Amino acid sequence: xxxxxxxxxxxxxxxxxxxxxxxxxxxxxxxxxxxxxxxxxxxxxxxxxxxxxxxxxxxxxxxxxxxxxxxxxxxxxxxxxxxxxxxxxxxxxxxxxxxxxxxxxxxxxxxxxxxxxxxxxxxxxxxxxxxxxxxxxxxxxxxxxxxxxxxxxxxxxxxxxxxxxxxxxxxxxxxxxxxxxxxxxxxxxxxxxxxxxxxxxxxxxxxxxxxxxxx
Length: 215
Hints:
The structure is a single chain. It is built from two helices and five strands; from the N terminus they run H-E-E-E-E-E-H. It is of the alpha+beta class and 215 residues long. It has a five-stranded antiparallel sheet with strand order 1-2-3-4-5. A hairpin with a 7-residue loop joins strand 3 and strand 4. The longest helix has 52 residues.
């Protein structure tokens, strides 16, 4: 009887191993055939967002390939390495797209995508992710209104540091009554991103040029 139980256990184990092997193989197969379409879809979505904040007429390089890795930086709020996309027109630097994170939103982090022209002026800003209150703080999304477009053409030269605040705090940027914390965090994050660009543009573009020539 013990021999029968042993044989049954062996048979069951073999069956389970076979199922596990087949299941793993199927998952690997599905992953391989879906990976390329998913990656292509993600690239298309990324490029579509880039076009919203940086007109195609201002660059003619592959933004997804011309990149520079940025280490964790307090001004950008990135606690993990992130990537800056470098825009070029006929091999001449035209601008950069940075990711910035405001950690002081009303309901948590607010992730931003900021396009800055070579002259230091903002081409456009978009919110990538947030957890702000629906119907109140979510007006920072372009789908909810034009508030985020207030940053278009802004720069550290155009607007003094003391004015980079919402009007309630003595600055120049409008806000929705009852939802001050959200725009305050975004304004602060955008300004700090401009400061980062101003302090690091030479290095960013130099690294991008070296990497481009090395390809």
